[in-house]
């Protein structure tokens, strides 16, 4: 019987681990924390009598949600001492697995995760469970410990708030080829300190946010906003100049084509772009250079290069 229970648990783990990770990652914005939550969830599940659980998938979702809520509450206080800006941890398309593509695309983009950082833990949990996984409000209420009517109100309020944000499109409006061409144009202009070429790519009010991993990594500590400041930063011969010595590659990161910079098969930076709503210009630059935040990007470029 023990062997049967063990075999069944291993099957469940293999079947649901990516699902559990994807929920945790959307709620936390950290792949490392999501993996910790996943392992804790399945360690607890291994101690349970599986026959006593009516719906394994819902049980896992609730277990992951509860752990994420606890972690999000504590993370807020930890980030008060974080050096510089905090950005989500980028993940490679290869890491998440192809079977999750349908549910992943609209709710995993980097710009979308940045928006979710504005929400409270409960707001984020309700929104993720409803928007990305289509859970009924009754089920969500049981997962977050709120009333069903309250969850409906939370979701509607969050939806309105996010839609009102003067933010870049989170659904990558530019077709794949057009986005790739834009990335290539940016790479060429950045490498050449080309002011004119860069200027043509920027919206009227672009923003650049860099995350050095909470350490004294050489990068900007505060968001740069406005065309003049972002343009000066990207075409400077001093600031961010080390990036020009690294090899750029266009790869899928968080479901969108982005730029990954490496030096001798060591990932040095990831640059995710948020496009304007028309998809014709760059509205936001999200630069992640903290080494501990780059562990889920492969050492070698994918075939998109």
Strand content: 5-15%
Helix content: 40-55%
The structure class reads alpha+beta
Distance between the termini: 50 Å
What's the number of helices? 12
How much is the average pLDDT?
Answer: 87
Strand count, sense and closure of the main sheet?
6 strands, mixed
User: SSE order in H/E notation?
Assistant: HHHHHHHHHHHEEHEEEE
Number of domains as seen in the coordinates: 2
Multimerization state:
single chain
Q: Which regions contain 5 or more consecutive residues with pLDDT less than 50?
A: none
The gyration radius over C-alpha positions equals 20 Å
| Order of strands, widest sheet | 2-1-6-5-4-3
Count every beta strand, where a strand is a DSSP E run of 2 or more residues.
6
**Global shape:** globular
Would you spell out the secondary-structure blueprint of this structure?
Blueprint: H1 2-28, H2 31-46, H3 56-78, H4 93-96, H5 101-104, H6 110-116, H7 121-131, H8 137-144, H9 148-164, H10 176-191, H11 195-199, E1 202-211, E2 224-225, H12 227-234, E3 247-253, E4 256-263, E5 266-275, E6 282-288
Parallel strand pairs: 1-6
Antiparallel strand pairs: 1-2, 3-4, 4-5, 5-6
Helix pairs in contact: 1-2, 1-3, 2-3, 3-8, 7-8, 7-9, 8-9
């Amino acid at each position: 019987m023990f062997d049967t229970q063990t075999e069944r648990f291993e099957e469940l783990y293999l079947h649901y681990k990516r699902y559990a990770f994807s929920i945790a990652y959307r709620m936390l914005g950290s792949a490392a924390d999501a993996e910790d939550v996943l392992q804790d969830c399945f360690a607890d599940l291994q101690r349970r009598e599986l026959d006593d659980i009516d719906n394994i998938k819902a049980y896992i979702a609730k277990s992951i949600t509860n752990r994420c809520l606890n972690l999000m509450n504590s993370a807020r206080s930890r980030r008060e001492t974080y050096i510089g800006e905090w950005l989500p941890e980028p993940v490679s398309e290869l890491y998440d697995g192809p079977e999750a593509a349908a549910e992943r695309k609209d709710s995993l983009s980097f710009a979308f995760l940045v928006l979710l950082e504005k929400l409270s833990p409960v707001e984020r949990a309700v929104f993720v469970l409803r928007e990305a996984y289509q859970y009924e409000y009754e089920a969500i209420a049981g997962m977050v410990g709120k009333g069903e009517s309250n969850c409906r109100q939370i979701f509607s309020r969050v939806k309105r708030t996010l839609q009102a944000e003067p933010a870049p499109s989170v659904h990558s409006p530019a077709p794949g080829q057009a986005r790739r061409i834009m990335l290539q144009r940016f790479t060429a202009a950045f490498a050449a300190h080309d002011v004119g070429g860069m200027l043509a790519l920027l919206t009227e009010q672009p923003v650049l946010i860099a995350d050095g991993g909470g350490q004294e990594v050489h990068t900007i500590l505060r968001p740069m906003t406005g065309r003049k400041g972002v343009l000066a930063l990207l075409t400077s011969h001093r600031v961010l100049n080390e990036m020009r010595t690294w090899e750029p590659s266009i790869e899928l990161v968080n479901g969108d084509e982005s730029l990954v910079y490496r030096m001798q098969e060591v990932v040095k930076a990831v640059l995710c772009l948020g496009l304007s709503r028309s998809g014709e210009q760059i509205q936001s630059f999200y630069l992640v250079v903290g080494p501990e935040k780059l562990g889920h990007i492969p050492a070698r470029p994918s075939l998109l290069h």
